[in-house]
Amino acid sequence: MDATLIRRFIEATQNVFGTMLQSTVSFGKPGPTGQIRSVGDVSGIIGFSGDVAGAAVIRMPMDTATKVVESFCGQPFGPDSEDFADAIGEIANMICGSAKSNLNSSCVNISCPQVVVGKDHKVQKPSDAVCITIPCNAPQGPFSIEISIRAAAATSSAGSSPHAAAG
Length: 167
Description:
Elements: H1 3-20, E1 26-27, E2 31-32, E3 42-50, E4 54-60, H2 62-73, H3 82-101, E5 108-110, E6 114-117, E7 129-138, E8 141-150, H4 151-154
Antiparallel strand pairs: 1-7, 2-7, 3-4, 3-5, 3-6, 4-8, 7-8
Helix pairs in contact: 1-3, 2-3
């Protein structure tokens, strides 16, 4: 996976959290999904198609998600509320939309957000995908960004360079 794609997600996350939640985010070292522990009771999922094919998952423990939604909306919403899922979906949409807009690819489309709420749920990745997890920490708590790019697209994504890392 091209390091540019990872950088775009980090920049987009910093921008969205800074602008919409008035928060800073620190990032751990990205690594192969499965080798980095990622706790997720709430996931905002956005699919990519075109020059970059795959998905991004913004995964949060419930406590983090609740605090993120409250920071974003200015009031608390429980996980059973439609507003809770809408807020998580909108945050995922803003992060992925911002990352997409900064890619050098000419044709990248993103899907409408899907939100999954459930203790320690699993989001299945395609077997032919390169999957990277970016650990994140904000004042609201820890979370992660999981990026899965199909192998055929991984070599040409984001203006690929000969120094692309394989996962």
